[in-house]
Amino acid sequence: xxxxxxxxxxxxxxxxxxxxxxxxxxxxxxxxxxxxxxxxxxxxxxxxxxxxxxxxxxxxxxxxxxxxxxxxxxxxxxxxxxxxxxxxxxxxxxxxxxxxxxxxxxxxxxxxxxxxxxxxxxxxxxxxxxxxxxxxxxxxxxxxxxxxxxxxxxxxxxxxxxxxxxxxxxxxxxxxxxxxxxxxxxxxxxxxxxxxxxxxxxxxxx
Amino acid sequence: xxxxxxxxxxxxxxxxxxxxxxxxxxxxxxxxxxxxxxxxxxxxxxxxxxxxxxxxxxxxxxxxx
Lengths: 206, 65
Known about the structure:
The complex is a heterodimer of chains A (206) and B (65). Chain A is α/β, with parallel strands linked by helices. Helix content of chain A is 44%, strand content 17%. Chain A is globular. Chain B is mainly beta.
Protein backbone atom coordinates (compact mmCIF):
# COMPACT_ATOMS: atom_id res chain seq x y z
CA UNK A 1 0.00 0.00 0.00
CA UNK A 2 1.68 3.14 -1.23
CA UNK A 3 0.82 6.68 -0.22
CA UNK A 4 2.30 9.39 -2.41
CA UNK A 5 2.96 12.70 -0.71
CA UNK A 6 2.99 15.61 -3.13
CA UNK A 7 6.19 17.41 -3.69
CA UNK A 8 7.67 19.75 -6.25
CA UNK A 9 11.05 20.27 -7.82
CA UNK A 10 12.55 22.17 -10.71
CA UNK A 11 10.79 19.90 -13.23
CA UNK A 12 7.36 19.32 -11.68
CA UNK A 13 4.78 21.25 -9.70
CA UNK A 14 2.49 19.84 -7.00
CA UNK A 15 -0.31 18.98 -9.42
CA UNK A 16 2.14 17.39 -11.84
CA UNK A 17 3.28 15.19 -8.99
CA UNK A 18 -0.32 14.10 -8.33
CA UNK A 19 -0.87 13.32 -12.01
CA UNK A 20 2.38 11.35 -12.29
CA UNK A 21 1.66 9.33 -9.16
CA UNK A 22 -1.84 8.45 -10.37
CA UNK A 23 -0.54 7.55 -13.83
CA UNK A 24 1.96 5.28 -12.14
CA UNK A 25 -0.93 3.46 -10.43
CA UNK A 26 -0.80 4.99 -6.96
CA UNK A 27 -4.26 5.17 -5.41
CA UNK A 28 -3.54 7.10 -2.22
CA UNK A 29 -2.46 10.71 -2.45
CA UNK A 30 -1.63 13.12 0.33
CA UNK A 31 -1.54 16.76 -0.76
CA UNK A 32 1.16 18.43 1.27
CA UNK A 33 1.89 22.05 0.53
CA UNK A 34 3.93 23.76 3.20
CA UNK A 35 4.36 27.51 3.70
CA UNK A 36 1.13 28.51 1.95
CA UNK A 37 -2.30 29.69 3.09
CA UNK A 38 -5.49 27.65 2.69
CA UNK A 39 -6.74 30.07 0.04
CA UNK A 40 -3.53 29.59 -1.92
CA UNK A 41 -3.84 25.83 -1.65
CA UNK A 42 -7.61 25.63 -2.32
CA UNK A 43 -7.53 25.71 -6.18
CA UNK A 44 -4.76 23.12 -6.21
CA UNK A 45 -6.63 20.94 -3.71
CA UNK A 46 -9.83 21.08 -5.78
CA UNK A 47 -7.97 19.97 -8.88
CA UNK A 48 -6.01 17.28 -7.05
CA UNK A 49 -9.23 15.93 -5.55
CA UNK A 50 -10.88 15.87 -8.99
CA UNK A 51 -7.97 13.85 -10.40
CA UNK A 52 -8.08 11.45 -7.46
CA UNK A 53 -11.85 10.93 -7.73
CA UNK A 54 -11.51 10.20 -11.42
CA UNK A 55 -8.85 7.58 -10.69
CA UNK A 56 -10.72 6.12 -7.71
CA UNK A 57 -7.86 7.18 -5.44
CA UNK A 58 -8.10 8.15 -1.78
CA UNK A 59 -7.34 11.85 -1.32
CA UNK A 60 -6.14 13.36 1.93
CA UNK A 61 -4.65 16.74 2.73
CA UNK A 62 -1.80 17.48 5.10
CA UNK A 63 -2.61 19.63 8.10
CA UNK A 64 -5.50 21.72 6.64
CA UNK A 65 -8.49 20.44 8.58
CA UNK A 66 -10.85 23.23 7.51
CA UNK A 67 -10.00 22.76 3.85
CA UNK A 68 -10.62 19.01 4.17
CA UNK A 69 -14.06 19.71 5.58
CA UNK A 70 -14.86 22.38 3.03
CA UNK A 71 -13.90 20.22 0.03
CA UNK A 72 -15.12 16.92 1.43
CA UNK A 73 -11.73 15.26 0.92
CA UNK A 74 -11.31 11.72 2.26
CA UNK A 75 -9.26 12.82 5.20
CA UNK A 76 -6.43 14.72 6.78
CA UNK A 77 -2.89 13.92 7.84
CA UNK A 78 -1.64 15.63 10.98
CA UNK A 79 2.02 16.04 11.84
CA UNK A 80 3.26 16.25 15.41
CA UNK A 81 3.20 20.02 15.26
CA UNK A 82 -0.19 20.28 13.56
CA UNK A 83 -3.61 20.35 15.21
CA UNK A 84 -4.10 17.48 17.71
CA UNK A 85 -6.02 14.48 16.34
CA UNK A 86 -8.84 14.82 18.89
CA UNK A 87 -9.48 18.41 17.90
CA UNK A 88 -9.54 17.52 14.19
CA UNK A 89 -12.00 14.71 14.97
CA UNK A 90 -14.25 17.14 16.80
CA UNK A 91 -14.29 19.41 13.76
CA UNK A 92 -14.59 16.70 11.09
CA UNK A 93 -16.79 14.14 12.81
CA UNK A 94 -16.58 10.43 12.06
CA UNK A 95 -16.76 10.54 8.26
CA UNK A 96 -13.13 11.43 7.63
CA UNK A 97 -9.88 9.50 7.75
CA UNK A 98 -7.41 11.08 10.16
CA UNK A 99 -3.76 10.07 10.08
CA UNK A 100 -1.19 11.11 12.64
CA UNK A 101 2.59 11.19 12.49
CA UNK A 102 4.41 9.27 15.18
CA UNK A 103 8.08 8.79 15.95
CA UNK A 104 7.52 6.52 18.96
CA UNK A 105 5.05 3.91 20.17
CA UNK A 106 3.77 6.38 22.77
CA UNK A 107 2.91 8.89 20.08
CA UNK A 108 1.21 6.18 18.01
CA UNK A 109 -0.85 5.16 21.04
CA UNK A 110 -1.71 8.79 21.76
CA UNK A 111 -3.02 9.21 18.19
CA UNK A 112 -4.93 5.92 18.36
CA UNK A 113 -6.60 6.92 21.62
CA UNK A 114 -7.48 10.29 20.08
CA UNK A 115 -9.29 8.38 17.25
CA UNK A 116 -6.66 8.41 14.48
CA UNK A 117 -7.34 5.90 11.71
CA UNK A 118 -3.78 5.27 10.65
CA UNK A 119 -0.28 6.18 11.76
CA UNK A 120 2.43 7.68 9.60
CA UNK A 121 5.47 6.33 11.37
CA UNK A 122 8.98 7.59 10.79
CA UNK A 123 11.37 8.75 9.74
CA UNK A 124 12.92 5.56 8.42
CA UNK A 125 16.14 7.40 7.66
CA UNK A 126 17.49 10.88 7.20
CA UNK A 127 15.62 12.81 4.54
CA UNK A 128 16.12 16.17 2.90
CA UNK A 129 12.39 16.54 2.10
CA UNK A 130 11.41 17.48 5.63
CA UNK A 131 12.91 19.89 8.08
CA UNK A 132 12.77 19.38 11.86
CA UNK A 133 13.24 15.65 11.82
CA UNK A 134 12.70 13.35 14.78
CA UNK A 135 15.25 10.56 15.49
CA UNK A 136 15.44 7.96 12.72
CA UNK A 137 13.75 4.58 13.31
CA UNK A 138 15.37 2.13 10.91
CA UNK A 139 14.01 -1.42 10.56
CA UNK A 140 14.52 -2.19 14.24
CA UNK A 141 12.44 0.83 15.21
CA UNK A 142 9.52 -0.41 13.11
CA UNK A 143 9.81 -3.96 14.47
CA UNK A 144 9.67 -2.64 18.01
CA UNK A 145 6.76 -0.28 17.44
CA UNK A 146 4.72 -2.90 15.53
CA UNK A 147 5.31 -5.40 18.35
CA UNK A 148 4.24 -2.87 20.97
CA UNK A 149 1.12 -2.06 18.98
CA UNK A 150 0.24 -5.76 18.78
CA UNK A 151 0.76 -6.15 22.51
CA UNK A 152 -1.57 -3.25 23.20
CA UNK A 153 -4.20 -4.41 20.72
CA UNK A 154 -3.86 -1.34 18.54
CA UNK A 155 -5.01 -2.45 15.12
CA UNK A 156 -4.89 0.67 12.99
CA UNK A 157 -2.64 0.51 9.92
CA UNK A 158 0.90 1.88 10.05
CA UNK A 159 2.51 3.57 7.09
CA UNK A 160 6.29 3.98 7.12
CA UNK A 161 7.62 7.34 6.04
CA UNK A 162 10.81 9.28 5.68
CA UNK A 163 13.66 8.79 3.24
CA UNK A 164 12.41 5.43 1.95
CA UNK A 165 13.90 4.18 -1.31
CA UNK A 166 12.57 1.47 -3.58
CA UNK A 167 15.03 -1.13 -2.32
CA UNK A 168 13.96 -0.59 1.32
CA UNK A 169 10.33 -1.49 0.73
CA UNK A 170 10.38 -5.32 1.10
CA UNK A 171 12.34 -5.24 4.35
CA UNK A 172 10.16 -2.47 5.81
CA UNK A 173 6.96 -4.34 4.93
CA UNK A 174 8.48 -7.47 6.48
CA UNK A 175 8.46 -5.72 9.87
CA UNK A 176 4.64 -5.82 9.76
CA UNK A 177 4.19 -2.22 8.65
CA UNK A 178 1.15 -1.99 6.37
CA UNK A 179 2.17 0.67 3.89
CA UNK A 180 4.83 3.01 2.64
CA UNK A 181 4.65 6.77 2.13
CA UNK A 182 6.94 8.25 -0.48
CA UNK A 183 7.64 11.60 -1.95
CA UNK A 184 10.96 12.77 -3.33
CA UNK A 185 12.14 9.40 -4.67
CA UNK A 186 9.42 9.39 -7.32
CA UNK A 187 9.90 12.91 -8.61
CA UNK A 188 13.69 12.61 -8.65
CA UNK A 189 13.49 9.63 -11.03
CA UNK A 190 14.16 10.18 -14.73
CA UNK A 191 10.72 8.68 -15.41
CA UNK A 192 8.48 9.26 -12.37
CA UNK A 193 5.54 7.25 -13.77
CA UNK A 194 7.75 4.23 -14.36
CA UNK A 195 9.33 4.68 -10.93
CA UNK A 196 5.90 4.65 -9.28
CA UNK A 197 4.93 1.52 -11.22
CA UNK A 198 8.11 -0.21 -10.05
CA UNK A 199 7.52 0.86 -6.46
CA UNK A 200 3.95 -0.44 -6.50
CA UNK A 201 5.12 -3.66 -8.06
CA UNK A 202 7.75 -4.16 -5.35
CA UNK A 203 5.25 -3.37 -2.59
CA UNK A 204 2.91 -6.06 -3.92
CA UNK A 205 5.42 -8.78 -4.69
CA UNK A 206 8.23 -8.19 -2.24
CA UNK B 1 -12.16 -18.97 5.92
CA UNK B 2 -9.47 -16.98 7.68
CA UNK B 3 -8.08 -13.75 6.31
CA UNK B 4 -5.88 -11.07 7.81
CA UNK B 5 -7.35 -7.63 8.38
CA UNK B 6 -4.88 -5.04 9.66
CA UNK B 7 -2.54 -7.83 10.79
CA UNK B 8 -5.30 -9.57 12.74
CA UNK B 9 -6.65 -13.01 11.84
CA UNK B 10 -10.35 -12.70 11.03
CA UNK B 11 -12.97 -15.20 9.90
CA UNK B 12 -15.22 -14.28 6.98
CA UNK B 13 -17.71 -15.77 4.55
CA UNK B 14 -17.11 -13.02 1.99
CA UNK B 15 -15.80 -14.05 -1.42
CA UNK B 16 -15.38 -10.52 -2.78
CA UNK B 17 -14.20 -7.28 -1.28
CA UNK B 18 -17.70 -5.86 -1.66
CA UNK B 19 -19.16 -8.73 0.37
CA UNK B 20 -16.51 -8.14 3.01
CA UNK B 21 -17.33 -4.43 3.05
CA UNK B 22 -21.01 -5.30 3.55
CA UNK B 23 -20.14 -7.80 6.26
CA UNK B 24 -18.03 -5.21 8.11
CA UNK B 25 -20.61 -2.49 7.40
CA UNK B 26 -17.96 -0.19 6.01
CA UNK B 27 -19.25 3.35 5.54
CA UNK B 28 -19.81 4.89 2.10
CA UNK B 29 -17.15 7.52 2.60
CA UNK B 30 -13.78 7.77 4.30
CA UNK B 31 -12.59 4.23 3.62
CA UNK B 32 -9.47 3.00 1.88
CA UNK B 33 -8.87 -0.70 1.34
CA UNK B 34 -5.79 -2.57 0.17
CA UNK B 35 -5.56 -6.25 -0.74
CA UNK B 36 -2.05 -7.74 -0.77
CA UNK B 37 -0.71 -4.18 -0.50
CA UNK B 38 -2.67 -2.95 -3.53
CA UNK B 39 -5.15 -0.13 -2.94
CA UNK B 40 -8.45 -1.14 -4.48
CA UNK B 41 -10.84 1.63 -5.63
CA UNK B 42 -14.42 1.14 -4.48
CA UNK B 43 -15.56 0.60 -8.08
CA UNK B 44 -13.45 -2.59 -8.16
CA UNK B 45 -14.60 -4.04 -4.84
CA UNK B 46 -17.24 -6.21 -6.51
CA UNK B 47 -14.70 -7.89 -8.79
CA UNK B 48 -11.88 -8.23 -6.28
CA UNK B 49 -11.79 -11.74 -4.81
CA UNK B 50 -11.18 -12.42 -1.13
CA UNK B 51 -9.30 -15.67 -0.69
CA UNK B 52 -8.04 -17.81 2.18
CA UNK B 53 -5.17 -16.12 4.02
CA UNK B 54 -5.29 -12.91 2.04
CA UNK B 55 -3.86 -9.82 3.61
CA UNK B 56 -6.26 -6.89 3.79
CA UNK B 57 -5.64 -3.44 5.17
CA UNK B 58 -8.62 -1.25 5.92
CA UNK B 59 -8.26 2.41 6.76
CA UNK B 60 -11.60 3.70 7.82
CA UNK B 61 -12.82 6.82 9.43
CA UNK B 62 -15.01 5.41 12.17
CA UNK B 63 -13.05 3.74 14.95
CA UNK B 64 -13.76 0.37 16.48
CA UNK B 65 -15.31 -2.66 14.77
